[in-house]
Design a protein that fits this description.
By secondary structure, this protein is mainly alpha-helical. The chain has a domain of 123 residues. The protein contains nine helices and no strands. α3 packs antiparallel against α9, α4 packs antiparallel against α5 and α6 crosses α8.
C-alpha cells in the first residue's frame, strides 16, 4: 500500500486536521483579536496606545500655580496690576474680584454683572442668616475647577498625595477628589482662593476689554532746521 507523501512528512506529524466547528472558532478568535488590536492602536515606537495614552507611560506632569496660596503681597506683573491690588479687592469687594475672574476666564458677554450680582445676593444671605459668608463658595468654587482644567494645573489633592508618595491613577476618581478639594478650599479659605485665582488669571490672560484693540502711538515730528541761502 502506497503512503501519502503529505502524511509521511515529519513536519506534519503533530498536525491534526481541525473540524469544521474548530475552524469557525479559530476564525472568530482571529477576528476578535484583530478588532482589539485595531481599537488599541500602536505608536511609532511599537508601544500599545490606549484611550488615555500610551500604555505603561507615566502620567503627564501638571503645571504649578504661578503664586502660592498665601502669597497675597507678591510682585507687580506685566499687566500693570499688582498683587496688592488683587488682595485689597478680594478683602473689600470679593464680588467684584469674582466677577472679574469669571469675565477674564472667557465667559459669555455680561458675565461680570451677572456673576457679581449673584455673588452679592449670596453674600448678603449668608451674612444675614448665618453670620458669615458661607453661601457664596457654592457659586465660586467651579471657577477654580475651570482654571485647573484649562491650564492643566496641579490640584490640592494631587499635591498632597504626591508629597505622601502616592499616585492616583484613576482620572475619574482624581477629578472627583479635586472638585471636593476645590469646594473645601473656597469654603474655609474663600478670600485667599479668590485672590490666588485672580493672580493666576491676570498673569495668564489679558483682560477681554483689551483684546483686539490697537494702541495709537503719537510720535512727535523731528526738529527741522532752515538751510542757509546761497
Amino acid at each position: 500500500m502506497q503512503q501519502n507523501p503529505d502524511e509521511a512528512s515529519p513536519l506534519l506529524a503533530a498536525y491534526t486536521k481541525p473540524q469544521k466547528g474548530g475552524v469557525t472558532k479559530m476564525k472568530r478568535d482571529q477576528k476578535e483579536e484583530s478588532k482589539s488590536v485595531q481599537g488599541l492602536g500602536w505608536t511609532a515606537d511599537g508601544l500599545p496606545l490606549g484611550k488615555g495614552g500610551v500604555v505603561g507611560e507615566p502620567p503627564a506632569v501638571r503645571s504649578q500655580w504661578d503664586s502660592s496660596f498665601f502669597a497675597c503681597l507678591g510682585r507687580n506683573d506685566q499687566f500693570c496690576s499688582s498683587d496688592l491690588e488683587v488682595c485689597l479687592l478680594g478683602s473689600v469687594a470679593p464680588c467684584v474680584l469674582y466677577g472679574s475672574n469669571v469675565e477674564r476666564l472667557g465667559s459669555s458677554p455680561g458675565a461680570f454683572a451677572n456673576h457679581c450680582l449673584t455673588y452679592t445676593c449670596l453674600y448678603l444671605l449668608g451674612n444675614s442668616y448665618f453670620g458669615w459668608n458661607c453661601m457664596a463658595p457654592w457659586l465660586s468654587y467651579p471657577t477654580r475647577t475651570a482654571i485647573r482644567r484649562r491650564f492643566n494645573l496641579e490640584g490640592s489633592c494631587e499635591a498632597l498625595s504626591r508629597s505622601c508618595g502616592c499616585i492616583i491613577e484613576d482620572d475619574v476618581l482624581r477629578e472627583q477628589m479635586e472638585s471636593a478639594c476645590d469646594y473645601t478650599t473656597h469654603f474655609f479659605c474663600h478670600l485667599c482662593s479668590l485672590c490666588q485665582e485672580g493672580r493666576e488669571l491676570r498673569r495668564r490672560l489679558p483682560h477681554p476689554g483689551f483684546n483686539g484693540r490697537s494702541i495709537l502711538v503719537m510720535i512727535p515730528p523731528t526738529e527741522q532746521t532752515m538751510g542757509r541761502g546761497a
